[in-house]
Write a structure and sequence with these properties.
heterodimer, A: about 260 residues, mainly alpha, 9 helices, B: about 290 residues, 12 helices
């Protein structure tokens, strides 16, 4: 399980979990699950375009996810936010389908992009991933207070003026996390990692910093268990990440119900 | 007639695959438009997305077992809708979270079933077919199921039209009048499951949200009256699907590969274009 080719997977998985857990805390706090779903999935178009043009996938992912964040921000200014998010997402997916049809992509490669191939991480991907991870964590640290404030004040009063700005900022943060994590866990499962551990963590503590830490710990546990289970069973990592993440939420709900009953 | 000949390639109307796609696409667009107006009013675009993704787990497992994918999709969708309603509370934020959790679990299962389908059946086509769909790959045997499910969702909406509209626009008022808002919400989710399953069949799981949300949101930009919006949404949806089919058929002659662009891309692009045009029009009306 700790053979040389697996070491890269463990390191990459750990980096992804650190960022997923930390950014996920804000996703859950803000109730921005749809945005956290749309940006990674939309970035699929960028990856498909990158493979078509033969350029670095990270670049394509970055451009598409930034584009998605900005588009949701702009479209959402007038009209309903969830509609803006949905339309941005489906248009990017449609573009992705178009690029796929042009590229005659090998179907397993499509599958890898959507559901991740953590066991195929190579050393060349490790350095950019580590760099982006450091940038994301730094961004979380810098934006911690403003994002927390915006989330807690929500739609009310003075916050509304600053809300559009904080929305865009948050979208960019998710875009950054997306670029980092998609090559490792795929466009679909980064979403599970973003919300499951954070939703579970929130049930155990009301204190923001503690919930953030717990969210990161649960995300790390999710990824580690998923890698080990995938290695042992030969089934896809994404399957385990999806189910364990949902599991944290259930554990949190049970815990909350049990403590409320007392 | 010259212009028509230039837009519609020769043989378009003669192809049985095109005729079937146009028929199924129209039924799907009408149902999606009607359900979609409620989806937009209720602010549940994310639920539409979540049900599509959870449903695809059912579709993939049915494919794996050699059963009809539409049935598997609908069944998994019903389970997902019940789960969302069960764990989702009244507040919008926790509802979004509940949708997300169900969606995430659905994706996990999809990953497994598609993986098993790919490895056991030896073809990688499952991933692309189930997720991106192909309206030209419909079988004529699908038509009765599509019509039946469409009629079911339509009848349900017609019966519940008034109470559901009130519960969607103002849950508090509806509750004060003694309506069971929770049950109405569940009934609506079931109609949504059917509409999403149908849309997934034609444009694929991950693009079904386009048909569900796009035409309805466009129509609501143009008319605030729900009845009119439903009719408009259906018309916009049908127009987008048919025009998309025409363009996809035309694109066989287009670069870069001369094997046709996906119909779903055209449909989605047309829907987004309609929405942008309608919001620009609505914005201009506000200023005037």
């Amino acid at each position: 399980m700790f053979a040389p080719f697996m070491v890269d997977a463990w390191i990459a998985g750990t980096l992804v979990a650190l960022v997923g857990g930390a950014v996920g805390f804000f996703v859950v706090l803000r109730g921005s699950a749809f945005l956290a779903h749309a940006i990674p999935n939309g970035s699929f178009a960028g990856a498909a375009a990158a493979s078509l043009l033969g350029i670095n996938v990270l670049f394509g992912l970055g451009v598409a996810s930034l584009g998605a964040a900005v588009s949701v921000g702009l479209l959402g200014r007038r009209g309903r936010r969830d509609v803006a998010t949905a339309l941005t997402l489906v248009f990017l997916l449609g573009l992705g389908a178009l690029f796929l049809s042009w590229g005659n992509a090998y179907a397993p490669a499509v599958y890898g992009l959507l559901f991740g191939e953590i066991l195929g991480v190579s050393v060349s991907q490790l350095w950019p991933t580590a760099l982006l991870c450091a940038v994301s964590l730094l961004a979380v640290a810098l934006l911690y207070r403003p994002l927390l404030l915006a989330a807690v004040l929500g739609e009310s009063g003075a916050a509304r003026r600053g809300r559009a700005g904080s929305d865009l900022l948050f979208g960019l943060l998710v875009a950054l996390a997306t670029t980092l994590t998609v090559p490792v866990v795929g466009t679909t499962l980064i979403f599970s990692l973003l919300i499951g551990p954070a939703a579970g963590a929130r049930a155990f503590t009301d204190r923001p910093l503690r919930a953030l830490m717990l969210s990161v710990i649960l995300a790390l546990a999710t990824v580690w268990i998923a890698i080990a289970a995938a290695y042992a069973s030969g089934w896809p990592v994404g399957f385990y990440v999806g189910l364990i993440s949902a599991g944290w939420y259930l554990v949190g709900r049970v815990w909350a119900a049990a403590t409320a009953a007392r | 007639m010259l212009s028509v000949g230039a837009i519609i390639a020769p043989g378009f109307f003669a192809s049985p695959a095109v005729a079937l796609a146009a028929a199924v696409g129209a039924v799907v667009a009408v149902v999606a438009g009607a359900v979609g107006v409620f989806t937009v009013i209720r602010g549940q675009a994310f639920a539409a997305e979540g049900l599509a993704d959870a449903g695809s787990a059912g579709g993939a497992s049915a494919y794996l077992a050699g059963l009809p994918t539409l049935g598997g999709f609908a069944l998994a969708g019903v389970v997902a809708a019940a789960a969302m309603e069960l764990i989702g509370a009244r507040r919008a934020r926790s509802r979004e979270l509940a949708t997300g959790i169900v969606l995430g679990a659905g994706f996990g299962l999809s990953a497994l079933f598609l993986y098993l389908g790919t490895t056991q059946r030896g073809t990688g086509a499952a991933t692309v077919t189930i997720l991106f769909g192909s309206i030209f790959a419909l079988r004529s045997g699908d038509l009765p199921a599509v019509l039946g499910l469409g009629a079911l969702a339509g009848t349900g909406l017609l019966v519940l039209y008034r109470p559901l509209l009130l519960a969607s626009a103002s849950p508090e008022l509806a509750a004060a009048r003694g309506l069971r808002v929770g049950r109405l919400g569940l009934a609506y989710l079931l109609a949504l499951v059917i509409a999403v399953a149908l849309a997934a069949l034609s444009v694929g799981t991950i693009l079904s949200t386009a048909l569900m949300v796009g035409p309805a949101a466009t129509a609501l930009k143009l008319s605030a009256r729900p009845g009119r919006a439903i009719a408009l949404a259906g018309a916009i949806g049908v127009a987008a699907v048919w025009l998309g089919l025409v363009l996809a058929y035309d694109s066989y002659a287009w670069p870069p590969l001369h094997h046709g662009w996906p119909a779903s891309f055209f449909i989605v692009a047309l829907i987004l274009g309609a929405y942008l045009a309608a919001s620009a029009w609505a914005a201009r009306g506000e200023r005037a």
